[in-house]
Amino acid sequence: MSRRPFTDLHQDRYAVRTAGMTASEIRALFAVASRPEVVSLAGGMPNLAALPLKTLSAQAAQIIAEDGLTALQYASAHGLPLLREQICEVMALEDIAAHPDDVVLTVGSQMGLDLVTRLFCDPGDVVVAEGPSYVGALGSFAAYQAQVVHVAMDEHGLVPEGLRAALRQAVNDGRRVKLLYTIPNFHNPAGVTLAVERRAEILEICRTYDVLVVEDNPYGLLGFDGRAYPALRSLDPDNVVYLGSFSKTFASGLRVGWVLAPRAVREKLVLAMESATLCAPTLNQMIVSRYLATHDWQGQIEMFRENYRERRDAMLSALERYLPPGCTWTKPDGGFYVWVTVPRGVDTKAMLPRAVDARVAYASGSGFFTDKSGSRQMRLSYCYPAPERIREGVRRLAAVLECELDPARSFGGVGSGRTP
Ligand code: PMP
Fold this sequence. Notes:
Bound molecules: 4'-deoxy-4'-aminopyridoxal-5'-phosphate
Strand content: 5-15%
Order of helices and strands: HEHHEHEHEEHEHEHEHEHHHEEHEEEHH
Largest sheet: 8 strands, mixed
Radius of gyration: 22 Å
Number of strands: 14
Strand order of the largest sheet: 2-9-8-7-6-3-4-5
Distance between the termini: 40 Å
Shape: globular
Helix content: 40-55%
Number of helices: 15
């Protein structure tokens, strides 16, 4: 049966804000990257293999058996009180002294991002963010028609002088900057961490320019030396909204995250949560709460860290061994990602189909910017594949890069299946 070309009958009906809603390059990649013969260094899925599934299933069953009429019922938009207390204990590891009343449970920190943007950004408002930045955050900013201004990072994270210059420029242009969106620890996608010495300076700059800081910190407890950095929120509680998540330290599919907000903001956040989804799933909140109460969750995070450290080591040594001269990359001390810069003349987005042909996938750099930078960059995730798959993936990627740099070389060796 022939298929008629797709025309969207609703085209004239969409709200103006939907113009900024486009599928991320990463989503478009998922279908190909999940083919078993492709080594995917593209996605950022946590590796959950170390979770105690038997214990968790017994606990979930017990919660429903003993407390099912609460677990399967609506909860408050604010979140379960016990879990909010436990979250304060989690955040204490990063020097945050918080009151449980100031924590609002969300459906993953992605929802926290959406709600905070909804509360603060009118169309045309500026959000300053690191360049590159997390794709999901860029999606939220686009959905509320905020304009992103990127500020460069170096190996110590966001550069304070660059932030100051961007804010000065915005003032001169008469633009209103509402938020600094920052991922201080083990950045997605850049893999770098904001130096402790820079933290107070960045907060001071934001105060001077009257800009609220949104600190997105899903990876903070995944530092490979076991050390946690002081959260920005711990240094300036009144001007930082902190986003937390159990996705990387426990189970992403439960979709349990939180926002720690200054008290005045918290009231509005609860109202926004209510209108968006009434409440975060009660059962999932209870599962997380029971897990924190009964399990050695810090020991579990230690296991995750070990697992990711082994994969990080495999990736860094493979990059060193295989990538052609002229490539550079960041060296993460935690988290999931390495950010690679390739030599001039290579466009990572254009190269991607050839890489997939060669059975390796990555996330091309341009998806992490709103200003179309990033054509010479790519994000490689080491979180999910086994170390030997990571090594093989990097080897395939290196062969594709060699061909891009010297098109006279034959491609067959990588793409035709002759490689082991
Ligand atoms: N922020 C960052 C920096 C992320 O990398 C992610 C997930 N990849 C999120 C937020 C969203 O996480 P979740 O909604 O699962 O808590």
